[in-house]
Design goal:
The chain has 488 residues and is an alpha/beta fold. The protein is built from 18 helices and 19 strands. The chain has a 15-stranded mixed β-sheet, sandwiched between helices. Strands 7-14 form a two-stranded parallel sheet. The chain starts with a helix and ends in a 5-residue tail after the last helix.
């Protein structure tokens, strides 16, 4: 009798826990699809569903991980923001007509993230590790005041050690070197590389250190950014991590061909990359690193005529800014949208935006990895479940066959380009810390367009009719994976 009472008490307690968890899910989760997914997990997967939700489902956009304000004085902050708005408005008086149509996008990034429009930039598109790393090494060697590096993956390999040696050399020469590495993605450098750097005078901290107790939760919110800032005037960002896998050379001919894109910015476009680094640094190092004049480019040098703006978002931002900016670009396109992404798990808003564009007569082309090269079967299966409905609206879908395409790029109407770290999936838009570079420059857009169509030579277009006729046993795993897509 006593045992029955205890069992009944536990059942009542468990029911109350489920009820409270369901209320929190309904209140805390913005997406209806994700809400239903978490509710089903909680109700139909006893205990484990509740644990899973609290591990990966908590909405950190409502519970910000840290404040992005690096200036505590309110009046000074307001004055700085006023200056940012004035500078952005001045840029529009200098841009060509084909760029003027993107004012709404520029205002979105300005209002949502205080990322102002910058002129006087030179932009270099760097394809694969073969082009990126020589430029990075050359720029690091030329550093005079500071080097700021922030990476998701930094590996203890040939290129990782080449960069390490330069950082040590520069630190000993008096250059201030600060490194942020993701504690999960860069776990291979914890034991040897990081201690060597610290011993030489480099300041190095992990981003959101993975602790065993909070393992699952902290793995869910990762710093996926790749940022290098040198002397405030040179910046790098894009899809290429610090790893030998991105270098396609005869020395690494046993590995799969890796197709990726990075960007080097010279000029005032580096400002917001620096701002993001300082915000992340103050969180990781628990240090109030204040903005200094030496951190921002004050050179009178004429770098170039590219107009650049940075788009960034993560659990620290009010809105999914990168998602918003992506949808805005798609909605503003009039002729052509070219998208490359290694992971494609779009939400309803992105699917609708692409479908509306295609049905409106805009040429929409999507380049994704081939089925044999994707590094995640579950993600690849979920991605394939979206291809059919997109192709029905006129979207062209190509699968890259030469190797693994890891680039995250978009080109619109031959006048605007986006290169960054964000994939087209829920993880990049909602969970990870990401950064994209928006380039308002028809010359760069032409270069990116040519590169895209070169990549299509190594890709195969999916035939919509053949895709629709596939047997059900092939479609079923994709449909099942799609059910989990809000959680991937």
């Amino acid at each position: 009798m006593q045992e029955i009472r205890w069992i009944l008490l536990l059942e009542i307690l468990y029911a109350l826990v489920i009820f409270a968890t369901c209320l929190r899910i309904i209140y805390d989760t913005r997406s209806t699809i994700k809400t239903l997914a978490y509710l089903m997990l909680t109700v139909f997967l006893p205990v484990a569903g509740i644990i899973l939700y609290f591990c990966i489902g908590t909405n950190y956009r409502k519970r910000k991980l840290y404040s992005k304000k690096i200036i505590k004085d309110v009046q000074m902050q307001n004055k700085m923001e006023e200056g940012i708005y004035r500078k952005s408005e001045k840029i529009w008086n200098t841009v060509p007509d084909e760029i003027l149509k993107y004012q709404k996008l520029a205002h979105l990034l300005l209002n949502d993230g205080t990322s102002y429009l910058t002129g006087n930039n030179r932009v270099d598109i760097l394809l694969n590790g073969e082009q990126k790393f020589p430029e990075v090494l050359k720029s690091l060697r030329a550093a005079k005041h500071h080097i700021h590096i922030e990476y998701y993956i930094y590996e203890d390999d040939e290129i990782g050690n080449a960069i390490k040696d330069i950082l040590i050399e520069k630190a000993k020469a008096g250059v201030k070197v600060r490194l942020i590495y993701d504690d999960f993605g860069s776990r291979s450098i914890r034991k040897r590389v990081v201690p060597e750097l610290i011993a030489a005078g480099v300041e190095a901290f992990p981003f959101y250190k993975v602790l065993f107790i909070a393992l699952a939760n902290r793995l869910n919110y990762r710093n996926h950014r790749k940022i290098i800032v040198i002397d405030g005037c040179i910046g790098f960002t894009g899809g290429i991590n610090i790893s030998d896998r991105y270098v396609n050379s005869t020395a690494h001919n046993d590995q799969i061909y890796w197709r990726d894109t990075h960007v080097k910015i010279s000029g005032t476009g580096v400002y917001y990359l620096q701002y993001l680094f300082i915000c992340d640094w103050n969180f990781c190092a628990d240090e109030a690193l204040a903005p200094q004049l030496d951190f921002f480019c004050d050179s009178e040098e004429d770098f170039g005529d590219s107009v650049v703006q940075i788009s960034a978002s993560g659990p620290d931002s009010d809105n999914p800014t990168i998602l918003f900016s992506t949808i805005q670009v798609i909605g503003m396109a009039e002729k052509e949208i070219l998208i490359t992404t290694p992971y494609f798990i779009p939400g309803e808003s992105l699917i609708d935006a692409l479908s509306v564009a295609a049905l409106s007569g805009v040429k929409v082309v999507l380049l994704v990895p081939g089925p044999k090269t994707s590094d995640s079967r579950m993600v690849a299966a979920a991605a394939r479940s979206y291809y059919g409905e997109l192709m029905k609206t006129g979207v062209e879908v190509y699968q890259y066959e030469k190797g693994f395409v890891h680039a995250k790029t978009m080109v619109a109407d031959g006048s605007l380009s986006m290169v960054g770290t964000a994939n087209m999936d829920n993880r990049s838009f909602e969970l990870n810390f990401e950064v994209n570079c928006v380039i308002y420059d028809s010359k760069i857009a032409l270069e990116m367009t040519n590169t895209f169509y070169e990549d299509l030579r190594d890709a195969k277009r999916i035939d919509p009719l053949e895709w629709e006729k596939r047997p059900l046993y092939k479609q079923l795993p994709e449909k099942l994976a799609r059910l989990l897509s809000p959680l991937l």
